[in-house]
Amino acid sequence: MADAARSTNRPGALDITRKLAEICGSPFARFAGPADEVAGRTARWVAVPGGPHAAAEVLRLAAAYDLTVVPRGAGTKIDWGAAPAQVDIMLDTGRLAGVWHEPHAAAVAEIGAGTPLRAVQATLARTNRRLPVDAPSPGATLGGVLAADESGPLRHRHGSPCAQLIGVRYLDADGELVSVGESGTEAFGRAAPDVGGGRPGGRAPAADADGGPGRGGGDAILGRGGMPGLDVARLLCGSQGGLGVLVSATMRVQAVPASRVWVSRPVWTPLEVHDLVRAVLASGVGPAAVELDLPVPVPLPRRRIPATHPSVINRPDHPAVTGRPAAGSLVVLLEGGPADVTERAERLTAVLGAPAMVSHHAPEWWGRYPFAPGDTALRIEVPINDLHAAVYALRDAAGTPVPVRGSAGGGAVHAALPGALPPERVASILTAVRSVLIARRGRCVVVAAPPAVRRAVDLWGELPALPRLRSAKAHLDPHHRLAPGRLPGGL
User: Fold this and answer.
1) 24, 91, 233, 282 — which has fewest CB within 10 A?
2) How many CB atoms within 10 Å of residue 373?
3) pLDDT tens across 56-114, in order?
4) CA distance 155 to 407
5) Is the pLDDT of residue 230 over 70?
6) Strand pairing category for 203-204 and 245-252
7) 289-294 and 245-252 strand pairing
8) Is a pLDDT exceeding 90 seen at residue 209?
9) What is the side-by-side strand order in the sheet with 245-252?
């Protein structure tokens, strides 16, 4: 039966298409097209189930025909990580969407996995609340953010999105609905709209529920016996859909800050960042984010711009003021009440010195990645005291400045290598950088890359948690039907 389904020209494939249409509705099940790829691997079918019950039926159909399933949200990170070994059914979560929350009192919200993050924020803003989540991928769904454990600047204060989970509802590889942690119902202390239907902590038939590497939690929790409660919820984070299909997540929410200001300071060398970050963290101003931007230097124009020109006047990083151009900038976000934020900003500018400036608007690069489609995107994690060493190591290995951006306050930044670099050159750069980082308890991961690079290099580097990850995969997806090959080690 599985062999008959491998080609969309065979009778078995037509039977699968018909059954997917019965489950999802004819407009929401089809043969895949050229754009339906996962890291370069084209799917055979696309299914867009209308609720948890339908999604469970898709997974049960896949199990019956021995087909693989890869979840997709908005597709903003569909080319991240390793290519799956095979994509039979792409399960689009776009109809598993919605936000359920108590309008005035609840500190949590239960959110459908397919809900765009910007829609979540817009809904919560009606009651002056937000998720403290600012993933950089435009249009990303909450499920996609959790599946990649994608964080933005606010991670400095609030932790990653996965750290803010208090419960999830997900479908396992056999199509059984599982609820772990607190759902919206338990968290609110009252009945909330049922988007999953499972019993907390156990399994429930999905038929009752209709209508409604990465990194992530693996290192800390994979070895715990039984994987109960939030251990499993956070285990799904960063799993790229390889351990379960997220249906909904219950997340902490908070009041929207009354005031936000960005305090920026030009920096001239990566080594200077070390001292500035230490000063910021020791100042007691309680930053919400501490971000670093080190772009590739742009050659100065041949015609010199006068220092009095309106475009450059009062810019503390202009060569006319400093004597040399800045390499980049360190920007600190402060949030809170207006008077409190003003006082903290004054204290911080005194700490950072005369070049520091205060603005009520984020810099243009804020919350954006330094890489573009087609680049080889790297993620570097290292203790903040050694961040400068990682930047220097990357520059030395590449033989030229490399754009770096991310959390200087948390020691997690992204960098971009040109997509035109040959795979062997990228591999040599990774080896050099990882050799520097390993002694500093850091790591360098390839987030995304052109297909030739992805096939040729080690995306993950040394991963001590791999044996425990292998055990988790064997426990949650023993037949390797969920996104096989997306996890480290080809899992």
Assistant:
1) 282
2) 9
3) 999 999 999 999 999 999 999 988 989 999 999 999 999 999 987 655 667 889 999 99
4) 8
5) no
6) unpaired
7) unpaired
8) no
9) 99-101, 108-112, 245-252, 165-171, 177-181, 203-204
- SS3 call for 174: coil
Q: What is the rounded distance in angstroms from the CA atom of residue 106 to the CA atom of residue 111?
A: 13
Helices (H) and strands (E) in the chain, counts: 16, 22
Closest CA to 487 of 183, 313, 476, 59: 476
Q: State both tokens at 484.
A: 């096989």
Angstrom distance (rounded) from CA 415 to CA 444: 10
Task: Give the CA diameter of the chain.
Answer: 76
Q: Evaluate whether 445 touches 393 at the Cβ level (below 8 Å).
A: no
Amino acid, res. 124? L
CA distances from 372 to 192, 208, 416 (A): 41, 43, 8
Closest by Cα among 50, 32, 125 to 86? 32
Q: By the 8 A CB rule, do 406 and 412 touch?
A: yes
Q: Per the structure block, which two tokens stand in for 194? A: 């049922």
Helix (H) or strand (E) holding 45: strand 45-47
pTM for the whole structure: 0.83
Residue 294: name the closest of 215, 214, 407 by CA: 407
Predicted pLDDT of residue 228:
52
Pick from 45, 22, 19: which is nearest to 32 by CA?
45
Count the neighbouring beta carbons within 10 Å of the beta carbon of residue 355.
Answer: 18
Write the pLDDT tens digit of every residue in 431-489.
999 999 998 999 999 999 999 999 899 999 888 888 888 888 998 899 999 999 999 88
- Reported confidence tier of residue 215, pLDDT bands at 50, 70, 90: very low
Question: Which comes out higher in pLDDT, residue 261 or 327?
Answer: 261
**Chain mean pLDDT for the chain:** 83
